[in-house]
Write a structure and sequence with these properties.
The protein is of the alpha/beta class. It contains seven helices and six strands; from the N terminus they run H-E-H-H-E-H-E-H-E-H-E-H-E. Strands 3-2-1-4-5-6 form a six-stranded parallel β-sheet. Helix 1 packs across helix 4 and helix 6 packs parallel to helix 7. The longest helix is centred in the first third of the chain and has 25 residues. The termini are far apart.
Length: 206
Amino acid sequence: MIFGYIFFAVILLSVFWLGSGIRRIGSVSVGDPIQQRDGSALLLIDLQSVFWDHGPYSEAAKNTAAAAIFEEVEAARAQNHPVIAVRQEWSIPSTKAVAKLAMKGQAIEGSDGTELAEIFAPLPEHVIVKRVQDAFETGELDAVLERLDVGRLRIVGLDFNYCVQKTALAARNRGYDVTVVKDGSLSAAPTEAAEKRMLSAGVIVS
């Protein structure tokens, strides 16, 4: 009987632990409100080999997005705005477990494909690693944007419904002016709900 209780308790703890990982993956951080800043930056979200080269996106969709991304980078450089790439690496034990169970083990810290896809590798001046969908979660992006005096963000990358959306919402929570460039973003599913949520939070979706 006692072993049955122990087994049941272990199962409950495992479910709770995995559930906490799932919640952590999709949560949106708040952070401190930013002061007045005059600079702008372009954020490239998750343009990694594992997602770009091996993800669920069609070649036609990737070609359209790549053209828009290169146009955004060119415009940013012309205005001396920094280009910042954010790469996904699941490194928290519970999120790594979720990634192994539900995401084919993609983008786990130390695994193949976490580097930027070849066509995007030369583009950014700064590269930041994130642990969940929200690129602000670790505080590193906050620090870089403060150092660069950035108060306005343009965001491209993938996936529109997940990491792009959560990063845009976290930025708005801090007071950034945020524009998500839809043509420069990829999505594996319909985007209406994500777009509505971002618009209601004050994100511009162009």
